[in-house]
Amino acid sequence: MEAKNTSMSRYRSFLLVGVIFVLFVSLAGFTVKFVELDRSQKKIQDLERSLMELKAAMNIDSVRQYNIQKIMRIIDQYNKSMPSSTKYDIADEIYRLSLKYSNLDVDLLCAMITHESAKTWDPMITSQAGAMGLMQIMPVTGVFLAAEEGITWTSAEDILYDPIYNLRLGARYLSALIDMYGLE
Questions:
Q1: Position 184 pLDDT exceeds 70
Q2: Quick check: 170 pLDDT over 80?
Q3: Which of 27, 42, 120, 163 is deepest in the core (most CB within 10 A)?
Q4: Between residues 125 and 51, which one has the greater pLDDT?
C-alpha cells in the first residue's frame, strides 16, 4: 500500500510539475503575445499618425496646386506668349507671397498685377511715368524696397524687370500700404 501511495505521490508530483510547466509555458506565451500586441499597437499608432500628417501635407499641396493653376489661367488670359516655366515661377511666387503676407491673397495680388501691368502681365512693361515690371514699381521706391527685402540692387532694369524680384518688392510695398491705410 505504501508503494502504491509512493507511486501515486510521484504521479501527483509529475502531474503537478507538468501542470506548472504547462502554465509557465502558457504564461510565457501570453506574455510574448501581449508584448507583440503592444508593439503592434504602437506601430499602428505611428502609422496612423504618419498617415494623418501625409493627408495634411497632401491637402496643403492640393491647395497650393489649385492656386498655382488658377494664377496660371489668369496669366494665360492676358499673356498667352509667356513661357510656361515663367508662368509657373510667377504663379508659385504669388502663392508664396500670399502665405508670407497675411493681408494679401492670391486674388488681390493677381488683380493688382492685372491692373498695374495694363492687362498685359508683361514683366518688361514700363509706364509713361517710369514705373517698371508686373507691379509697376518706381526705381526710387525699388531701391528702398530692395534693401528692406535683402535684395542687392544692381540696376532698375536688373531688379524691376525680374518678375520674381518685382513681385517680392511689390507685395512688400502693398502689404505695408494696407497695414498703414487699411483695406476697404
A1: no
A2: yes
A3: 163
A4: 125
Q: What is the pLDDT of residue 143?
A: 98
- Give burial (CB, 10 Å; 0-12/13-18/19+) of 11: exposed
CATH of the domain at 175: 1.10.530
Number of folded domains that form the chain: 1
Residues 6+ away with beta carbon under 8 Å from 110: 71, 74, 94
- CB 119 within 8 Å of CB 127: no
pLDDT at 140 over 90: yes
Residues across the chain: 184
* Owning domain of residue 60: 2-181
First-to-last C-alpha distance (Å) of the chain: 110
pLDDT per residue over 9-34, tens digit each?
777 777 787 788 888 877 777 777 77
- Give the mean pLDDT of 150-175: 98
Are 171 and 109 spatial neighbours (Cβ–Cβ below 8 Å)? yes
Q: Are 87 and 72 in contact (CB under 8 A)?
A: yes
Residue 84's CB is within 10 A of a number of other CB atoms, namely 10
Q: What CA–CA distance (Å, rounded) separates 57 from 34? A: 34
Q: What number of H helices and E strands is found in the chain? A: 6, 0
